[in-house]
C-alpha cells in the first residue's frame, strides 16, 4: 500500500563555497575532479573562472545598461561530484542568462549557486544532464533549456548555437525560448527514493523551476519548487513563450508544432509540496510515469494548492511501483491540511493508468479537495492489481475502516477529512476499467462526497472493477452524484457502478444515458456483491439515491443486477441496517432482456429494490418496447424486513414474456425459483429470512402478457406481512404450462389481483391464486371478453385457516372452467376454506343472459290462401303495369333498353371454374378471375375474432389456431401476430 510520508523541507538561501563543501562532505562526497567551466570569450565583457577549480566562483560577464540582466557565455559548463559553480553576481540583479556554445552537453553533478533574488537561465542546445548529486542554490527561478536561443521582448536574441553579442541597450526580461530542429536531451538522475537522501534540484519557495528541451528524462531524480511552479516541456522545435508571474514564469507552448517525450522512472519525483502547493505543468508528445515515480502538488498548510496539468499530444501513462513495492506511481494534487487542493488536469489522446498507478485529487484535511479532470480524445484505460485486491478494499469499506490513501490503482477525487471532495470529470471516446481498477469520489470523513460526470462518446466498459461515489460509516454529509453519458455501457465479471451512503447523509443520484445499449453480465463465483448498478443505503440512516437508466437495449444476465437496497445481502450474510431505499427508473426504447442467475446460484439477474432493514424499499419503474424474463431471473421490489415493499410498475408496448425457472442458492440452500415479476414480502430463495412488512404493489401494462413454463407474477407474502395488489392490463393474457399469477400469503392478508384483457387464456396447469394460510383469501377481479381455462388450470382464492376470498369474473364467454365447491382434476374456479363450507368465499361469474325467445315472430293463427291474392286479369283500358322484380329484371320504364349483363353466377364448390363475364353499368364486359379450390366441408369453429366494429366472430382454421392480438383488418381477420396455442 502507498503511504506518503511528508518531511519538512528546509529553507534554502545563498550559501558560500565553504558551506557547500561542508554539505557535500556530510553526504560522503569528496571532490575528485575539476569543474569543466571555461568561458568562450564571445562577449564584450567575458566571464571569469579560475583555472583548474572544483568549487568555481564565476565573475565577469556582460551587464545590460539598466543593470538588470547579466550575460555569461561558456565553451563548456560541467560540474563534477562535489564541485560547484558560484555566480558572483550583484544581489540587485534580476536575471543571469548563461549559454554554452561548445557543442558538448553540460554534465551537472555538483552545485549551482547565485546571490540575491536573481533568476538564472542555463542554455545548452546539446543538452543538460543533472546527476544524482546535483544541487541548486538559486534564490530565484531556474530555467534549464536545450533551446538554441533566448528571445527578448524587442525581438533580439541571445544565441547558444551561434555566439552573438546581445544589444545591451534594449535587452530586458526574456520572453521566449527558441528551440532548434534537434534540441538536446534534458536528463535528471537520482537515487530514486522518497524522501530523497539529497535534496536534488530545487528552487527557493515561490519560484519557478523549468526544464525545457528535447526529450526530458528523469531516472530516480528529484525536482522541487515548493510553493512555486514546475514546468517540464519536451519539444522537437518551435518557441516556448515566457510570461512573468508572481511565482516566476508561466511557459506557453501553443506555437510548438512537434513535441517530444517526458519519462519519469525508478522513483523519480516532481513536487511543489508546501503550505500551499505550487503549480506543475508538463507538456510533451508522450508522458510516462512509472516504477513508483510521482508528481505531487500536495498542500500541507492553510494556503490554496496549485494545479497539476499534463498535456500530451499522444499519450499519458502512469504505471507500476518501486522495486521494493513500497511506492506506487502517482499523480496527486491532494490537500492534507486547511488549504484547498488544486486541480489535476490531463489532456491527451490516450490515457493509461495501470499496475498500481494512481491519479488523486483528494482531501485528507479541512480543505476542499481539488477537481480531477481527464480529457482523452481516443481512450482512457485503467487496470488494477487484480479483482481479489479490489474485493479486499471493498470489504474494508463495508467494515468502515477504509483509508482512501490505501487505494492503489485508478482515480480518486475523495475526502478523508472534513473538507468536501472535489469533482471528477471524464471526457473521452472510450473508457475502460479492468482487472481491479477503481474510480472513487468517496468520503470517509465529515466532508461531502464529490460528483462524477462521465462522457464517453463510444463506450464504457467496467470489467472486474469498481466505479463509485459515496459516504462511509460515521459520516454525516451527502454522497456525490454520478452521471454517465455514452453509446454503449458494459459491466461484467464483477464490474460495479455505484453510489451509496453508509452514513447519515443522502446517497447520490445515479443517471446513465446510453444511446445504444446497457449490458450487465456475469457475477463471478465468490463475489462479495453482484455485477451491476447500485445506489444503496447500508449501515446508516441516510436515504439511498435514485437510479435512472435511459437506453435503447437493456440486458442483465448471469446474476447481474440493477439494485437499490436498504441494508444488504452481500454474499457473506445479511446487513439489517440502512435508510430508505431509492427508486429504480428504467426507460428502454427497444427490448429489455433479463436472464438467469450467477454460476454459483447466489445472485439472481434483474433490476429491483429491497429492504433488509426496517426502512421501506424503493419503487421500480420499467418502460420498454418488449420484455423477456427467463431462467429464474426477475424484476422485483421485495421486503425482507419490517419495512414495506415498493411499487413495481412495468409498461411494455409489445410482448412481455416470462418463462422458465432457475436454481438459487443465496444462503447455501438450493431453491427452484420462477422467472418473475415480483412485489413480495419475503422470497422463496431466502428461506431463513422472515419478513413482517407488507408487500408492495405491482402494475403491469402490455400488448401481450405471456407467463409460461413455470414463470410467475408474484405479489405474495411468505411471512406475516400482507400480500400486495396486482393490476394487469393487456390485449392478451396467456398463462401456459404452469405459469402463475400469485398473491398467496402465509399469515398476512391475502393479495388482490385485477386483470383487464379481452382474452384471458390458462392452459396446462396454470393458475391465478390469492390463497391464504392463516388469513382470509384475497380477491380476484377479472374483466374480459373470453375466459378460457383448460388442462386443469385453476383460479382460486382459497384459505386454510380463514375465510375464502372473492373471485369476480365479468366475461361474455367462459370456456373450459366453472365454479366448483372444491378443486378437481378439471379447471376450477374456487374460493373455499379448509375450515368448512360456511367459511367459503364468494365466486361471481358475470356473463350475458341468453333469451331463448329473442328474435322469434309469432305466426298468425289463420293461414291465408295465396290463390286469393292473385288477380285473374287486368282491364286493358285501365292504367296498368306488369312488373318483374329481382335483379336484372325488366326495366320499370318500357322506354329503356333491357340490360344484358349476366344475372346469375354459380357459387357452388367446383374444381374448375372458368372466368365469369359480367357487364359493367356502362354495358362493357369485364372479366373477374375467380378460382375455387376443392370443395371444403364445413368445420367446427375453433377460435374467436373481433372485427373493427367490435363484433365477436367464431371462425375455423385448417392449419393454425390464431391467438388474439387485438389488431384486426377490415374483414375482421387478425392483422397482427398469429401463433398456435401450445
From TrEMBL:
Keyword Signal assigned: yes
Keyword presence, Lipoprotein: no
Location of the Filamentous haemagglutinin FhaB/tRNA nuclease CdiA-like TPS domain: 40-153
Signal peptide: 1-35
SMART domains cross-referenced by the UniProt entry: Haemagg_act
InterPro entries: FhaB/CdiA-like_TPS, Pectin_lyas_fold, Pectin_lyase_fold/virulence
Chain positions covered by the region annotation Disordered: 962-982
One protein family per Pfam: TPS
Keywords annotated in UniProt: Signal
Coiled coil: none
NCBIfam families associated with the record: adhes_NPXG
Protein name, entry field: Filamentous hemagglutinin N-terminal domain-containing protein
Amino acid at each position: 500500500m502507498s503511504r506518503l510520508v511528508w518531511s519538512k523541507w528546509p529553507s534554502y538561501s545563498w550559501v558560500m563555497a565553504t558551506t557547500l563543501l561542508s554539505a557535500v562532505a556530510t553526504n560522503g562526497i569528496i571532490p575528485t575532479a575539476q569543474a569543466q567551466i571555461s568561458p568562450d570569450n564571445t562577449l564584450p565583457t567575458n566571464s571569469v573562472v579560475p583555472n583548474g577549480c572544483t568549487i568555481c566562483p564565476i565573475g565577469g560577464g556582460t551587464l545590460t545598461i539598466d543593470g538588470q540582466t547579466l550575460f555569461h557565455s561558456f565553451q563548456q559548463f560541467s560540474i563534477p561530484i562535489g564541485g560547484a559553480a558560484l555566480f558572483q553576481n550583484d544581489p540587485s540583479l534580476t536575471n543571469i542568462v548563461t549559454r554554452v556554445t561548445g557543442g558538448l552537453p553540460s554534465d551537472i553533478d555538483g552545485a549551482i549557486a547565485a546571490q540575491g533574488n536573481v533568476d538564472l537561465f542555463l542554455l545548452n542546445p546539446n543538452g543538460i544532464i543533472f546527476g544524482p548529486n546535483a544541487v541548486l542554490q538559486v534564490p530565484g527561478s531556474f530555467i534549464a533549456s536545450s533551446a538554441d536561443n533566448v528571445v527578448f521582448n524587442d525581438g533580439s536574441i541571445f544565441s547558444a548555437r551561434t555566439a552573438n553579442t546581445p544589444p545591451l541597450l534594449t535587452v530586458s526580461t526574456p520572453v521566449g525560448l527558441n528551440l532548434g530542429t534537434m534540441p538536446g536531451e534534458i536528463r535528471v538522475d537520482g537515487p530514486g527514493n522518497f524522501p530523497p537522501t539529497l535534496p536534488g534540484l530545487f528552487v527557493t519557495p515561490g519560484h519557478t523551476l523549468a526544464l525545457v528541451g528535447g526529450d526530458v528524462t528523469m531516472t530516480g531524480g528529484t525536482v522541487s519548487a515548493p510553493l512555486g511552479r514546475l514546468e517540464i516541456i519536451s519539444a522537437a522545435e518551435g518557441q516556448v513563450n515566457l510570461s512573468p508571474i508572481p511565482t516566476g514564469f508561466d511557459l506557453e507552448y501553443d506555437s510548438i508544432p512537434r513535441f517530444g517525450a517526458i519519462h519519469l522512472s525508478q522513483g523519480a519525483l516532481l513536487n511543489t509540496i508546501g503550505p500551499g502547493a505550487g503549480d506543475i505543468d508538463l507538456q510533451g508528445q508522450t508522458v510516462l510515469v512509472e516504477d513508483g515515480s510521482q508528481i505531487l502538488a500536495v498542500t500541507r498548510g492553510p494556503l490554496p494548492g496549485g494545479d497539476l496539468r499534463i498535456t500530451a499530444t499522444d499519450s499519458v501513462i502512469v504505471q507500476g511501483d518501486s522495486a521494493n513495492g513500497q511506492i506506487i506511481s502517482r499523480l496527486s494534487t491532494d490537500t492534507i491540511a486547511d488549504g484547498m487542493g488544486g486541480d489535476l488536469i490531463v489532456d491527451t489522446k490516450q490515457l493509461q493508468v495501470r499496475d498500481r498507478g494512481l491519479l488523486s485529487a483528494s482531501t485528507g484535511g479541512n480543505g476542499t479537495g481539488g477537481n480531477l479532470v481527464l480529457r482523452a480524445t481516443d481512450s482512457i484505460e485503467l487496470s488494477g492489481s487484480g479483482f481479489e485486491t479490489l474485493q479486499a478494499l471493498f470489504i474494508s469499506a463495508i467494515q468502515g475502516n477504509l483509508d482512501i490513501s490505501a487505494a492503489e490503482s485508478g482515480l480518486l477525487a475523495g475526502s478523508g477529512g472534513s473538507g468536501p471532495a472535489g469533482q471528477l470529470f471524464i471526457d473521452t471516446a472510450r473508457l475502460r476499467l479492468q482487472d481491479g481498477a477503481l474510480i472513487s469520489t468517496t468520503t470517509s470523513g465529515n466532508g461531502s462526497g464529490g460528483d462524477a460526470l462521465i462522457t464517453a462518446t463510444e463506450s464504457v466498459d467496467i470489467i472486474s472493477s469498481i466505479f463509485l461515489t459515496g459516504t462511509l460509516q460515521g459520516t454525516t454529509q451527502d454522497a456525490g452524484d454520478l452521471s454517465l453519458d455514452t453509446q454503449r455501457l458494459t459491466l461484467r465479471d464483477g464490474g460495479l457502478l455505484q453510489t451509496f451512503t453508509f452514513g447519515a447523509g443522502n446517497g447520490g443520484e445515479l443517471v446513465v444515458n446510453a444511446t445504444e445499449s446497457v449490458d450487465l453480465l456475469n457475477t463471478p463465483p465468490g463475489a462479495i456483491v453482484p455485477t451491476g448498478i447500485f445506489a444503496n443505503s447500508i449501515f446508516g440512516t441516510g436515504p439511498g439515491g435514485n437510479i435512472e437508466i435511459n437506453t435503447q437495449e437493456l440486458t442483465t444476465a448471469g446474476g447481474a443486477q440493477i439494485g437499490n437496497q436498504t441494508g444488504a445481502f452481500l454474499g457473506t450474510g445479511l446487513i439489517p441496517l440502512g435508510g430508505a431505499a431509492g427508486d429504480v427508473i428504467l426507460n428502454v426504447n427497444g427490448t429489455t432482456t433479463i436472464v438467469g442467475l450467477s454460476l454459483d446460484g447466489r445472485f439472481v439477474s434483474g433490476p429491483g429494490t429491497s429492504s433488509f432493514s426496517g426502512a421501506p424499499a424503493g419503487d421500480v419503474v420499467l418502460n420498454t418496447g418488449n420484455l423477456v424474463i427467463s431462467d429464474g431471473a426477475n424484476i422485483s421490489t421485495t421486503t425482507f424486513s419490517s419495512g414495506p415493499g415498493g411499487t413495481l410498475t412495468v409498461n411494455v408496448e409489445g410482448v412481455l414474456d416470462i418463462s422458465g425457472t432457475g436454481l438459487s442458492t443465496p444462503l447455501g440452500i438450493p431453491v427452484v425459483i420462477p422467472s418473475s415479476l415480483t412485489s413480495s414480502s419475503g422470497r422463496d430463495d431466502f428461506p431463513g429470512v422472515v419478513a413482517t412488512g407488507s408487500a408492495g404493489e405491482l402494475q403491469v401494462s402490455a400488448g401481450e402478457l405471456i407467463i409460461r413454463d413455470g414463470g410467475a407474477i408474484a405479489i405474495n407474502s411468505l411471512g406475516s406481512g400482507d400480500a400486495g395488489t396486482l393490476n394487469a392490463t393487456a390485449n392478451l393474457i396467456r398463462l401456459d404450462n404452469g405459469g402463475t399469477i400469485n398473491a398467496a400469503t402465509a399469515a398476512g392478508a391475502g393479495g388482490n389481483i385485477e386483470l383487464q384483457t379481452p382474452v384471458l387464456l390458462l392452459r396446462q396447469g396454470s393458475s391465478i391464486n390469492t390463497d391464504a394460510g392463516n388469513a382470509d383469501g384475497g380477491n380476484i377481479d377479472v374483466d374480459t371478453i373470453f375466459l378460457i381455462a383448460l388442462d386443469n388450470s385453476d383460479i382460486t382464492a382459497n384459505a386454510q385457516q380463514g375465510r375464502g376470498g372473492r373471485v369476480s369474473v365479468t366475461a361474455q364467454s367462459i370456456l373450459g372452467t366453472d365454479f366448483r365447491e372444491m378443486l378437481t382434476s378439471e379447471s376450477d374456479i374456487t374460493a373455499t376454506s379448509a375450515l368448512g363450507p360456511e367459511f367459503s368465499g364468494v365466486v361471481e361469474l358475470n356473463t350475458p343472459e341468453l333469451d331463448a325467445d329473442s328474435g322469434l315472430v309469432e305466426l298468425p293463427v289463420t293461414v291465408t290462401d295465396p290463390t286469393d291474392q292473385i288477380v285473374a286479369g287486368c282491364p286493358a283500358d285501365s292504367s296498368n303495369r306488369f312488373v318483374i322484380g329481382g335483379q336484372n329484371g325488366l326495366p320499370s320504364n318500357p322506354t329503356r333498353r333491357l340490360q344484358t349483363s349476366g344475372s346469375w353466377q354459380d357459387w357452388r364448390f367446383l374444381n374448375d371454374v372458368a372466368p365469369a363475364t359480367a357487364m359493367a353499368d356502362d354495358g362493357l364486359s369485364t372479366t373477374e378471375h375467380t378460382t375455387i379450390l376443392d370443395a371444403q366441408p364445413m368445420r367446427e369453429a375453433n377460435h374467436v375474432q373481433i372485427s373493427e366494429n367490435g363484433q365477436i366472430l367464431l371462425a375455423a382454421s385448417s392449419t393454425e389456431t390464431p391467438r388474439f392480438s387485438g389488431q384486426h383488418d377490415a374483414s375482421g381477420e387478425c392483422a397482427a401476430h398469429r401463433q398456435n396455442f401450445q
